[in-house]
Amino acid sequence: MSKQTAILIMLLVTVIWGGGFPATGLALNLGVTVGIINMVRGAIFTVLVFAVFHRQILTMKAKDIKIGLFAGTANVLAFLLQTIGTQYTTLSNSAFLTTTNVIMIPFMVWVLMKKRPVAKNFVAMGICMTGTAVLAGVFQNGLTFNVGDIYTLACAFFYGLSIVLVAMQPSDSHFSVSAFMMGLTHFLGGLFYFLFAEGAHIPALDWKIAILPVLYLGIFSSFTAQTLQILSQRFVSPNTASLVFMFESVFGSIFSILFGFEAFTVNLFIGGGLIMISLVISEVEFKKKKPKPLTE
After folding, report:
1. DSSP 8-state symbol, 205
2. Which of 28, 64, 100, 290 has the smallest count of CB within 10 Å of its CB?
3. Which residue from 168, 180, 143, 156 is spatially nearest to 74, judged by alpha carbons?
């Protein structure tokens, strides 16, 4: 797979994740709890990955399990911390602070993968963060700081760590192993939250309707999108991956507008444009190649 193809697949992933915003909002509005949403989508993810790739999963090695388990744990911790944080902070703060993983990832890559970031990485990060701040309305509404923001910054750290750990999967391992471990940890994290934070309470609601957005999250946002994420991340750097995944917020806003959750704003256009520019900068080679000497 070429790098360009991998980036296109990752953009498709952000489109699917973007659809997860209204799906999550709809599920919560219908009364489904956070623990149940994550427990069910994690279970669907795990079962589908095993059904499709059971031969590869049954022959997985210890090193495959180790990376998949670490990446999955970091991923589910990120989501749970973000969920807790949104109870104490604004949505704009949550959206903006979550994206600080773009700044953290190059240093994680430096420490864990021994790859030092280059100057254009920092330029791209700055433009991307500016775009996300515009998208989240930080310049209009300001940015306060409270305990919820601390949870959200911790979420950003673990989300960035999950991206780097996915990039560290062994080259000779099948991508489905990491996907299976990520689904399993997502299920266990949701189950833990359901049992201990929600008291194992199952709300009385119309499950025939309420289950539909949860099925979208399990089949598409988790199984389809995260499996494609793990596959495509083999062919790009974690820094590039983090910038591409910023489009999740752009498509999330677009789908929220289409489903009536919010109105179109100029911030969406400007913020999305800046994120696109940051991705282009990260991928363009600014050093000109020296021309080859003419031969006689």
Report:
1. S
2. 290
3. 156
Give the model confidence (pLDDT) of 72-100 as tens digits: 889 888 877 877 776 676 555 666 667 77
Which tens digit of pLDDT belongs to each residue from 190-200?
899 899 988 99
Beta strand residue intervals within 29-105, DSSP E: none
Residue 260 has pLDDT above 80, yes or no: no
Contact status, residue 210 vs residue 57, Cβ threshold 8 Å: no
Nearest to 96 by CA among 106, 86, 107, 111: 86
> Over the chain, what is the mean pLDDT?
80
> DSSP class of residue 203?
-
CA 201 to chain centre: 28
* Residue 151 one-letter amino acid: Y
CA angle 39, 244, 269 (to 5 degrees): 105
In degrees rounded to 5, what are phi and psi of residue 87?
Answer: -75, -15
Interatomic CA distance for residues 281 and 243, integer angstroms: 10
Asked whether the beta carbons of 156 and 278 are under 8 A apart, the reply is: no
Burial-class residue 248 by CB neighbours within 10 Å (0-12, 13-18, 19+): buried
Long-range contacts of 283-290 (CB under 8 A, 24+ apart): 283/7, 283/240, 284/120, 286/120
Higher-scoring residue by pLDDT: 97, 19: 19
CA distance 78 to 85: 10
